[in-house]
Amino acid sequence: MEFVVRNLKASFLILLFVILPVKSFANDADDLGLCPQLREKTPRAPEEFLKKVNPLEKNQKNLKKGKLLYMVRAKTLQCKHCHGVNGDGRGEMASDSFPAPRNFTCAETMKAIPDGQLFWTIENGLPHTSMPSYSNLKDKQVWQIILYIREFAK
Ligand code: HEC
User: Fold this and answer.
1) 101: CA distance to ligand 1 center in Å?
2) Which residues of 109-123 are buried (b: 16+ CB within 10 A; e: fewer)?
3) Given pLDDT bands bounded at 50, 70 and 90, which one contains residue 7?
4) Which of 102, 115, 152 to mutate to test the pocket of ligand 1 (most atoms within 8 A of CB)?
5) Are 27 and 100 within 8 A, CB to CB?
6) Which among 18, 84, 56 is positioned nearest to 145, based on CA atoms?
7) 35-94 pLDDT per residue, tens
8) Is a pLDDT exceeding 60 seen at residue 20?
9) Residue with the nearest Cα to atom 41 of ligand 1?
10) Distance between CA 64 and CA 96 in Å, rounded?
């Protein structure tokens, strides 16, 4: 009897501390790639960042470098794993990331986000979400990625 009680207690604790938290940090398929995608809880960049404008020319060279970073070079985890190879927010790690990764193909959501907000996000990551920081990238590389991800909504 004591054995059963102890096991019940253990199962309850596993449910409470293991299964429920994992469940609440996973997205259902229908949370992914929404458009428009609400950004109500997304932290806002400081004012001095919001004023920044992409200084790079949108030419083939910069777009190619941006794509290379997005798909292959960005460390430690490439953007495609969460934001998807098509930028639709449905990468293979998207359902385990929190909240749903931004859907770059959604023009309605993307056109409302200033360059400087994108820059700050990529450089610093977003606290309390699974969006990592890429402080190892040079400013120029971040702007190249931004040129590239803005193409998904066109
Ligand atoms: C481990 C998963 C993951 C990876 C890898 C990842 N992201 Fe994200 N990203 C997220 C999540 C989750 C959000 C949504 C956060 C939110 O809604 O607050 C997000 C949001 C964003 C946003 C939106 C910011 C805003 O203000 O709306 C941008 C831009 C972005 N990511 C760019 C990138 C780029 C560029 C890379 C690669 C260099 C990258 N992300 C890699 C998970 C990821």
Assistant:
1) 6
2) bbeebbbbbbbbbbb
3) low
4) 102
5) yes
6) 56
7) 999 999 999 999 999 999 999 999 999 999 999 999 999 999 999 999 999 999 999 999
8) no
9) 79
10) 29
Q: Residue written as tokens 């398929």?
A: 29
Name the architecture of domain 32-151: Orthogonal Bundle (1.10)
The amino acid sitting at 9 is K
CB 95 within 8 A of CB 29: yes
Site residues for ligand 1, CB cut-off 6 Å? 39, 41-42, 74, 77, 79, 81-83, 93, 97, 99, 101-102, 113, 117-118, 121-122, 126, 129-132, 134, 145, 149
Lowest mean pLDDT among 10-19, 44-53, 106-115, 121-130: 10-19
